[in-house]
Structure of ATP-dependent DNA helicase 2 subunit KU80:
Amino acid sequence: MSLEGLVLVLDVGPSTHALLPEIEKVCSMLVQKKVWVYKKTSEEKFPSLKKYSDKAPLTDKFATHEIKVDYEYKSIEDPNRVVPPEQRIKGYRYGPQVVPISSAEWEAVKFKPEKGVKLLGFTGASNIMRQYYMRDVNIFIAEPGNTKAILAVSALARAMKDMNKVAIIRCVWRQGQANVVVGVLTPNVSEKDNIPDSFYFNVLPFAEDVREFQFPSFSNLPPSMQPNEQQQQAADKLVQMLDLAPSGKEEALQPNLTPNPVLERYYRSLELKSKDPDAAIPPLDETLRKITEPDAELFIKTEL
């Protein structure tokens, strides 16, 4: 498929154009394992702490010290009677009412889409606001060594880049998965010959996910509540002097070089406790202090 053909389809957006099925073949490669998906950015969660019991004898080598939790459901009319599982049913609050739904009904109501990736269409990159990005970021790359897949992904990515377009796709990652995501594919054109072109994938919100807060324009406020020229210049100067990426210097707090201070402090304390259970929690490390507190040098320069 030629680049000109790709440009035609990208130009018209969603349509019944004859070449649209050819474009969809690129997305269908995801299911055929011709395009691989990796996590590009994912939030590192705080480790979950489990309950521990020291009731087991120290001589018991097979003791797990794990605590198991059991729940009992009792009747309101008879608090001493335990309600067995077959007599329990889930209820969902709908306004002032509680609607009972059995397990069979819930299974019938569940949306069970087929696994796959569906191209919905294209739109201008400016139509996708930064605040629309949700969850983690994935990267779509062609299967290494698969020349056809590499060429197809590269042709589509470069055509979209040239026209400043992004693709809107519908994804179901696993068969029978209850939820469907709609996301945006942003072309990532490589500047190196040994690194193939790819796409960044971001999940987009549905209507229920968007919070539309309407705030009045600052320019609509009375003059007495707006900054004068001197105040505006002072604010501009403050921003310039506290710039984390000043000219001629390395940028501070780069994400790929800045560890999570909460996780770092937790693991350092955990290491200390593993060596000495009675050890006191140490003060904040100087390295972490630089992350969590303003740079003193910047403020000194600002005062000057």
Q: What stands out?
A: The CA atoms of residues 56 and 63 lie 6 Å apart. The chain is about 30% helix and 20% strand. Residues 1-19 have pLDDT under 50 and may be disordered. The first strand starts at residue 35 and ends at 41.
